[in-house]
Amino acid sequence: MQFEFATANRITFGAGKLRQAGPTIKSAGKRPLVVTGKNIERAEPLFKILRENKIESATFSVSGEPKIQTIRDGVALATSENCDWVISIGGGSVLDTGKAIAAMMTNEGDVLNYLEIIGQGKALAKASARFLAIPTTAGTGSEVTRNAVLASPEHRLKVSLRSPLMLPEMALVDPEMIYDLPPSITASTGLDALTQLIEPYVCSRANPMTDAICTEGIGRVARSFRRAVENGHDADARADMSVASLFGGMALANAGLGAVHGFAGPIGGMFSAPHGEICAALLAGVMEINLRALREREAKSSALNRYDVVARLLTENCEATADAGIQWVRNLVHDFKIPRLAAHGIKSEDIPEIVKNAMNASSMKANPITLSEAELSEILRRAL
């Protein structure tokens, strides 16, 4: 048995932890670039800390998922404003933006040179600038991953800037930051978190450390997902979902993902669709087709037993089998009215291109079994 495990240099977790972060932020650097989402007011708790500690900063606001040009613009701003480190406060897109900017602040050349698939795939030579990640959603786990997903509109693809040198210096996870998230966003991001716990657990590169955090995270989603959606100020439920998201990020960074994310990248590059909603629409179908393929072609695969474990954790029934886990996910998606893929403009005629791109996606390589074009197409048709 061989495996490795790497994550953020320091993880601070707990309600109210952001309010206590002044000394840490003050000692991290001289002038941070603060990366926020479109609604800058969401970052006010951080700006208050900066003011109280007389820390000067520059602000870079991003709208939607980051594009390659977004990173160029952010690096240019950081340079012109003499920023020496980066703080991101926001959802996964904001965290990925800050992560990529921090990487390119210390590495020479254009970001395109370092991108997989559409670029040269050049390895980063230097560690990123110091980077603090503060998530305001519970879904992506980007605060502890070693990649940033960037969109290339001209290629109609989303690709990753990826390196162990991109792991954040610090992840500060404060569940209070997600108390006011709308139910719809809580549901879609929560299903992304669940997907990022199930896929690493059943994938071909699972290891004992990721197994432990995946099973712990899945159990927390099972007991707290509905409560978090229905009552955003349920502190225990919000903490559980924040832990689940954090653990999902740690798991995917150290094991891998699967067909759901193999599809999500290409779909996100071709259509304007929230990542969490894509994952939610695909998760049950991928589980079902994976199970059928495993039963037909690899009946001795350990992934079959792992899908049973997933079902027992989700249903809180020690006798449940894999199919019950699939139904649990379907019920959740139905009850919280997660849109199907067709709601994002995806049509049956788009399936061949999506499948072609998905088969080349890095996330697809860790799926517990290699799926055929016909099986991948079937998953998409069922999700339309």
Verbal overview:
Strands 1-8-5-4-2-3 form a six-stranded parallel β-sheet, with helices on one face. The mean pLDDT is 96. The longest helix is centred in the middle third of the chain and has 23 residues, at 208-230. Strand 4 (85-90), helix 4 and strand 5 (131-135) form a beta-alpha-beta unit. It contains 13 helices and eight strands. The chain starts with 9 loop residues before the first strand and ends with a helix. The chain is globular. It has two domains: 10-177, Rossmann fold, CATH 3.40.50.1970; 182-383, Dehydroquinate synthase-like, alpha domain, CATH 1.20.1090. With 384 residues, it is of the alpha/beta class.
Features:
13 helices; Dehydroquinate synthase-like, alpha domain; alpha/beta; globular; 384 residues; two-stranded antiparallel ribbon; six-stranded parallel β-sheet; Rossmann fold
Give me the secondary-structure topology:
Layout: E1 10-13, H1 22-28, E2 32-36, H2 44-52, E3 58-61, H3 68-80, E4 85-90, H4 92-106, E5 131-135, E6 147-152, E7 157-162, E8 170-173, H5 183-202, H6 208-230, H7 235-254, H8 259-270, H9 275-297, H10 302-315, H11 322-335, H12 351-359, H13 373-383
Parallel strand pairs: 1-8, 2-3, 2-4, 4-5, 5-8
Antiparallel strand pairs: 6-7
Mean pLDDT: 96
Number of strands: 8
> Class of the largest domain, according to the CATH hierarchy?
Mainly Alpha
Number of helices: 13
Outline the biggest β-sheet.
6 strands, parallel
Which fold name fills CATH's third level, the topology of the largest domain?
A: Dehydroquinate synthase-like, alpha domain
Low-confidence stretches: none
Order of helices and strands: EHEHEHEHEEEEHHHHHHHHH
Strand-pairing-aware structural class? alpha/beta
Tertiary shape: globular
Percentage of residues in DSSP E strands: 5-15%
Q: What does the radius of gyration come to?
A: 20 Å
- Give the CA-CA distance, first to last residue: 41 Å
Name given to the CATH architecture of the largest domain? Up-down Bundle
